[in-house]
Amino acid sequence: MTVWDELVGQDAVVAQLQRAAQDERPTHAWLFTGPPGSGRSSAALALAAALLCEQPDPAERGCGRCTSCRTVASGSHADLTHFRTEHNEIRIDDARELVVRAQDKPSVGRWRVMVVEDADRMVERTSNVMLKAIEEPPPNTIWLLCAPSPMDVLVTIRSRCRPVTLRIPPVEAVAELLETRDGVPPALAAECARLAQSHVGVARRLAQYDDARERRRRVVELPLRLGGVADAVREADRLTKLAEEEATADAETRHEEERAHLMVALGAPESGRMPPSVRSALKRLEDDQKRRSKRIRTDTLDRFLIDLTTFYRDVLTLQLGTGSHLVNSHLEGPLQDYAANSSPEESLKRIDVITRTRSRIRTNAAAGLAFEAMAVSLL
């Protein structure tokens, strides 16, 4: 299996990146853009692996078999820096640390590769810190930035990067990937690929966890349970609690593992009073974990809203008679009834309500109140 196999339905992008990996002097900065599920970070990591691949034949770079390809995939390659923020924004201290790391010479490969996900989360001040390093990096440093669209990145940054535009892969391609790589039964793979709207990561999660499919079902069926204001308030409360439970379960496991690893790394005693340096390190870790928990919760709520949008997307499809496949085909009967009792204009207004709610939860707005206002507006 090569590093390119993850990029299902992206043949043009794969060809572009393969040519770049074979070049002796590839472009020093790249910007990978595409909607959620298009594989931005996968494409960036595939290029990183190909650039660091040990194959002597340029045409074979990105083999997926050599030590470099495998260590890039695991995130442990000495010449790879893979940065993913756990916060709502990329902090300026993180940007400064990345700039310092970018000055290091490669230790085992030909290049030092800097992969930065969520480049759209850099405010202008943070972008300016990284601008000079991206504009004129050391000779053997290559920057790979990821963002939903070029407009989400400061113009001074994107103008210095070579663009790579990805698209959502076909449902059939995602289903085939789940079958061949993850051993998912064909029927389940096709269902999960459709429900995830071709988002590979979401489709895999739905295929692997029954409770994930059940949570999605509860979210998508929310409009069918809205009979009045009392129902709207109750359902909004249920959704926010559901997101809280999912985010907490995800965070707690990671937090305990991080604390255990930190204690081992610091040589902390198993019991008794902790030295001041250990207490200070644990306090910093706990502060970071609190901020990350907020990000996980926000991302979970956002995923719920994306799933909820598919209900009204299907309703609008039926109302306009577009002939497009329904995302939630298992609800075809209720969807037809809902479409018959409302208008396309009402469906568009409800989609706009969900879109505004997605924007609100990324700010300091209380998620519970935002969801209540949304649920009432969906009546």
Distance from N terminus to C terminus (CA atoms, Å) equals: 50 Å
- Into which percentage range does the β-strand content fall? 5-15%
Q: Helices and strands: which structural class?
A: alpha/beta
Largest sheet: 5 strands, parallel
Instruction: Bin the helical content.
Output: 55-70%
N-to-C order of helices and strands: HEHHEHEHEHEHHHHHHHHH
How would you sum up the global shape? Answer: globular
Regions with pLDDT < 50 over 5+ consecutive residues? none
User: What strand order characterises the main sheet?
Assistant: 2-3-4-1-5
Total strand segments: 5
- Rg from Cα: 23 Å
Number of helices: 15
Q: What's the overall average pLDDT, rounded?
A: 86
Give your account of this protein's structure.
This protein has 379 residues and is of the alpha/beta class. It is built from 15 helices and 5 strands. It has helices at 11-22, 40-52, 67-74, 92-102, 124-135, 155-158, 171-182, 186-195, 200-208, 210-220, 229-266, 276-320, 332-340, 344-361, 367-377; strands at 29-33, 80-83, 112-116, 141-147, 162-165. Strands 2-3-4-1-5 form a 5-stranded parallel β-sheet, with helices on both faces. Strand 2 (80-83), helix 4 (92-102) and strand 3 form a beta-alpha-beta unit.
